[in-house]
From TrEMBL:
Residues 1-56 are annotated as: Disordered. This is F-box domain-containing protein. Residues 45-55 have a biased composition (Pro residues). Pfam families: F-box, FBD, LRR_At5g56370.
């Protein structure tokens, strides 16, 4: 080790609160126990089940300074009757959907029922004297029931809710008597002489009707426009007329942001979302979950069907065909953010866009991802994205093609044992040499998942790295060599993966000249990992930081940490000023991690760094 090289021990990031497979979660949490292996028991599944117990987790979203997390709303939904009717597979998939949909902008933290406690001692109503724009802002952040009841506060408030774009979260319409007591609002409205449709609306929302009926009443009563509508509390199979009605109302009243999740009870419940969705032309953000996408070749769609203002699209747990996905993407001329997660049917993604900036494909079967031409694409994230594969969960290969993407800076996680990489028209093979036709010089941050001790995967890694000569930050998720899924049935030769193996691979430009930071997660202390790290530090001339995160159950100060420090001390570091930092894993089990928020937050410089993704630490917006 060079004279300037230092070693730092500690815990990687704050004490992150994350879920891993097997963790027992409170039903109100949106964190899930991964039960992917149980999909194998689903007889009507059209594709091979997801890989079993490859430990994985997805981080829960932080609690914003003002508003609700998805966990808060999910707690309301998950404690409801529809969620309790689901089979085990659908519960797992539904929880994953809730982790992907965006956070809310309304708050139940200070209901109007407690407003009297904060009254000024002199009795002066200063809030009502605020500028009208501020009153609009206040009302727009309240749940629908509380927002409507502001009409009873004072004369100046009577028309505020009516003139504010509606924010509706159906979970707030569940029968929560602790938030809005019987008589508060509607009775007071009558006493104040507000003989308007508001009073009728209050009585409706307090009545013992269904959640679907309450949603219908609110959507019909408010004149619009709708700023944000979140509908995720109903199994729409039991309300076949409601989904079409709601979309018609939303389209007529100019909904801007929409989350529409169907709480299906069974995996094979394939309910089509009405084609009226395409009439919501004012949408800027759209997330739909657990639906069958309309058949665009036969649906009664107008030739001009499009989403001209849509900038963010989330397709969660959908049954959607290749041609229908292509149809919707072609009709989103300003789309910047695309997420595909937990698809229930294999779908190929073809990206030909002048507007897309970030694409996330997570926990989905995607046989091919083809970036044909994407002049603004900056981020392409693949997390647990695999191919079709065989019934024994092998040969789950997926093609990743990168054509014209001059601004692509963030890419990963590529899996050498599963992803067949193509640059331009060239398939990347073992010993593929770097050339202008096989490189993507714009990529600065790359993530890979690789079994460093498995010859089939390790021999592909140098070829992958040569395709990205200007990488400055490299994330390596070290996978367990004992995990035998997704790769070919035969692992090829059993040659030893040692230091000589890496040296024989030849020069790799990004390692020698550009990599400044290396992060290796899930370090188990295997010889293949140590040899890989030694090869890096002996050839990376500008490496400034090497971060090693131990696998769960080990500490930097235990025997495994000591083994690492002793071994690395024998290396001839190419940069004697490089710092090696060894951290305890902040998570409860081994596996990969991902944060959807960071993937879409362009202000974050390192979307792969999930060490701070906890409720009060995540910097994502």
């Amino acid at each position: 080790m060079g004279p300037g090289t230092t070693i730092q021990l500690g815990t990687f990031g704050p004490a992150t609160q994350a879920s891993r497979q097997g963790r027992n979660q409170n039903p109100s949490s949106i964190i899930h126990k991964d039960q992917s292996s149980r999909l194998a028991s689903t007889p009507l599944s059209p594709f091979p089940p997801a890989p079993p117990p490859r430990p994985q987790f997805c981080l829960r979203l932080r609690r914003p300074s003002f508003g609700l997390t998805m966990e808060d709303v999910a707690g309301m939904i998950f404690s409801g009757p529809e969620f309790k009717k689901m089979d085990e597979n659908m519960r797992m998939l539904t929880v994953d959907v809730f982790k992907a949909i965006p956070r809310l902008t309304v708050s139940t933290a200070a209901p109007l029922a407690s407003a009297a406690a904060a009254a000024a001692p002199d009795g002066v109503d200063r809030i009502s004297r605020l500028p009208l724009g501020i009153l609009h802002n206040i009302v727009s952040r309240l749940p629908a029931k509380d927002a409507a009841r502001t009409t009873a506060l004072a004369k100046r408030w009577r028309r505020v809710w009516h003139s504010v774009p509606l924010v509706l979260v159906d979970a707030h319409l569940l029968f929560d008597r602790s938030v809005v007591g019987r008589g508060h609002g509607s009775t007071q409205s009558c006493e104040m002489g507000l003989e308007s449709w508001y009073a009728g609306l209050f009585r409706i929302l307090d009545a013992m009707g269904t959640l679907a009926d309450n949603v219908s009443h609110v959507l019909a009563a408010h004149p619009g426009p709708f700023a944000f509508v979140y509908l995720a509390g109903n199994n729409m199979l039991y309300h076949p007329d409601k989904s079409e009605l709601w979309l018609k109302l939303l389209a007529a009243k100019g909904v801007k942001e929409l989350v529409f999740v169907n709480l299906a009870s069974k995996f094979d419940d394939e309910l089509p979302i009405p084609a009226e969705l395409f009439k919501c032309i004012a949408l800027t953000k759209l997330y739909i979950g657990t639906w069958c996408f309309p058949d665009t070749s036969t649906s009664d769609l107008p030739p001009t069907a499009a989403f001209p203002y849509l900038r963010e699209l989330g397709l969660c747990n959908l049954v959607i065909k290749d041609e229908d996905l292509a149809f919707v993407l072609d009709r989103c001329p300003v789309l910047e953010k695309l997420m595909i997660t937990r698809g229930r049917w294999p779908v190929c993604l073809r990206i030909h866009s002048r507007s897309l900036r970030s694409v996330q494909v997570c926990m989905a079967i995607v046989p091919e991802i083809n970036v044909v031409r994407a002049t603004r694409l900056e981020r392409l994230f693949l997390w647990e994205a695999w191919g079709w594969g065989d019934r024994d969960l092998t040969n789950m290969s997926s093609k990743v093609k990168i054509g014209h993407a001059p601004k692509l800076r963030f890419l990963g996680f590529l899996v050498p044992g599963m992803h067949q990489l193509e640059i331009g028209n060239t398939a990347i093979m073992v010993n593929t040499k770097a050339s202008p036709n096989t490189t993507v010089p714009s990529v600065q941050m790359l993530g890979v998942q690789v079994k460093l001790g498995t010859h089939f995967e390790a021999r592909m890694l140098p070829s992958f790295l040569r395709c990205f000569p200007n990488i400055e930050t490299l994330y390596v998720q070290s996978e367990n060599d004992d995990f035998k899924f997704w790769g070919p049935k035969t692992g090829g030769t059993s040659k030893a993966i040692n230091l000589k193996f890496w040296k024989d691979a030849g020069p790799i430009e990004c390692i020698q000249r550009h990599i400044k930071k290396l992060v290796l997660r899930e370090f188990r202390g295997r010889k293949s990992e140590l040899d890989f790290l030694k090869y890096i530090v002996e050839h990376a001339q500008v490496l400034e930081e090497m971060v090693i995160v131990m696998t769960h159950g080990h500490l930097p100060s235990d025997n495994l940490g000591a083994k690492l420090r002793i071994f690395m001390a024998s290396a001839k570091w190419a940069n004697g000023c490089c710092k090696m930092m060894v951290f305890k894993s902040p998570f409860e089990q081994e596996g990969t991690a991902w944060c959807y928020l960071r993937g879409f937050d362009f202000s974050i410089e390192d979307p792969f760094d999930v060490s701070k993704c906890r409720e009060d630490k995540c910097a994502a917006h």
